[in-house]
Specification:
seven-stranded mixed β-sheet, alpha/beta, Rossmann fold, globular, 10 helices
Length: 238
């Protein structure tokens, strides 16, 4: 099978339908990712089938806990090579997307991807979540925040929830250990005016390892005290 045939089968197995344009966009994204990965560290996963499952299909699992039709604006925090934000944008092109990363060369790569795939209403932004979340044009502006970044759930929540509208959601993509992190973030949820409303643990096809989606609802406005200055949320989680 060629790349598009593999992707079509994997997406159908996951209950996701892709049209020809979307299949073409994912194939182009794959080639751009692999080519750029030769000169900068974007991903340790390069095999076609692994990228399809562990990056593309995994990015789209957000639909397991979210009605994506109700989402008009999304921010992907610590997006790295564009996961999960770009796959979500390809499948849900009507959503306005911001891709946030602290490394400028990754943002340049994301802009190349946006141009080559012909994506509209998507912006790659260079900056730190702690700084951007204090800017009026970003704070409390998004229906949904997502992140596959590797950080403790309390730390990630402090970075992400300030971006979300009241009654909006933050979905954290986690490995199996995310279930343990839930047990220690009661005080964090209270401080940020939020609560965990759904936890979905599952395995991707052909995978032994557990994946976890943690859906957090923002119930009231976040105190201006959060997020704290750079470095503090990771050193001293709420």
């Amino acid at each position: 099978m060629n790349f598009k045939e593999k992707l079509k089968k994997a997406s159908e197995d996951a209950g996701i339908s892709m049209n020809d344009l979307q299949l073409d966009q994912f194939e182009e994204f794959y080639h751009l990712l692999i080519e750029k990965n030769k000169v900068m560290n974007l991903t340790a996963i390069t095999d076609e089938e692994e990228v399809i499952e562990k990056h593309f299909i995994d990015s789209l699992t957000c639909r397991r806990v979210m009605d994506m039709g109700s989402v008009k604006s999304l921010i992907d925090i610590g997006t790295g090579a564009g996961f999960p934000g770009i796959p979500l944008k390809i499948i849900y092109p009507e959503i306005s997307v911001v891709l946030l990363d602290s490394l400028n060369k990754r943002v340049k790569f994301l802009n190349e991807v946006i141009d080559e795939l012909g994506l509209s209403r998507v912006e790659a932004v260079h900056g730190r979540a702690e700084d951007l979340a204090r800017k009026q044009e970003y704070r409390g502006r998004f229906d949904l925040a997502v992140s596959r970044a590797v950080a403790n759930l309390s730390t990630l929540s402090e970075y992400c929830i300030p971006f979300v509208k009241v009654n909006g959601f933050f979905v954290s993509y986690k490995a199996g250990k995310g279930l343990e992190e839930i047990e220690t973030c009661d005080s964090c949820m209270k401080a940020l005016g939020s609560k965990i409303v759904q936890v979905d643990d599952f395995q991707l096809p052909g995978e032994d390892s557990l994946r976890v989606l943690i859906k957090i609802k923002k119930c009231k406005g976040t105190s201006k005290a959060y997020p704290r200055k750079a470095g503090i949320p990771s050193r001293n989680p709420l």
